[in-house]
Automatic annotation (TrEMBL):
Residue ranges that the Swiss-Prot or TrEMBL entry lists as coiled coil: none
Location(s), subcellular: Cell membrane
Native source species: Acetobacterium tundrae
Similarity annotation: Belongs to the EamA transporter family.
Name the UniProt record assigns to this protein: EamA family transporter
Domain EamA: 11-140, 151-282
Membrane topology: Multi-pass membrane protein
Transmembrane segments: 7-27, 39-57, 69-93, 99-116, 128-149, 155-173, 180-200, 206-230, 242-260, 266-284
Domain of life: Bacteria
Keywords, ordered alphabetically: Cell membrane, Membrane, Transmembrane, Transmembrane helix
InterPro entries: Diverse_Substrate_Transporter, EamA_dom, EmrE-like
Amino acid sequence: MAKTSKYPLYADLGLIAVSFVWGSGFVASKNALNSMTPMMLMALRFSIAALLSGIIFRKNLRNLSKETIKAGCIIGFFLFSAFAAQMIGLQYMLAGKQAFLTGTNVIMVPFIYWAVKKNKPDKYNFMAAFIMITGLALLTIDFSVGFSFNIGDALTLLCAFLYACHIVVVGIFSKQHDPIALTVIQLAFAAIISLLYVFWSGEFTIAIPVPGLLNGLYLGVFCTFLAFLVQNLAQKHTSSTHAAIFLSLESVFGSTLSILLLGDQFSFTMFLGCIIIFLGIITAETKWSFLKIKQNNPEKITEH
């Protein structure tokens, strides 16, 4: 009997860890916003991540072409815009609620590709979109007082759309340029724009309370730099279906941790909306292919 490689197992565990870290990022961000402005937090987070990635991957930055720099800046623009909308919106809403609203970006991606590349989404994408709309209504509308959609909800959905655009442009440019170089450039772009803004607005400060500083360091080192590194390494050793399922757990971890650590309170309707949105995310990411595999191979353990 051939010896089974442990790499797929380690890869799956790595992706679960990435989802957990990303989910915890909502809690860390909410806590950090008690000590600094959203843009100052972004400046701190992206400066740390850009510095670390620039040092570790400095070989990939040699002999950069103008086209690669331009592509990295375009990607960085969407990264910066998405996080700006997210951090500002987080001030007006529960962290756990934002985790699920942000997760809707995976449902938006196929439709943005449709607009850009003319590739029509399949039936699962349309199904996921319908499920998402239903879940969004339950999560964001307070039916006891009629229609209630606050600025935090709007900014977070804008964040989801911008992050979906970010995924699309990454998919396009990573086929033409070194993905590592693009990552370093986009992080540096986001850091520079954030720093320029906080200096211009007068928000820049080094007098950050220790709790806020620790949360900012956690976001920069773990949620941005290390999470990206582990994700790229792990996806080399596991299936795309496994990766999609495990990375979709980000919203679940984010919501659970916000309830446990921040004391967020969800009504039954909001909880039901979260479950429905998660079903939409799973539908868009996996097309339920893991169920088809089990049906086609009821007794066979499939390889990654």
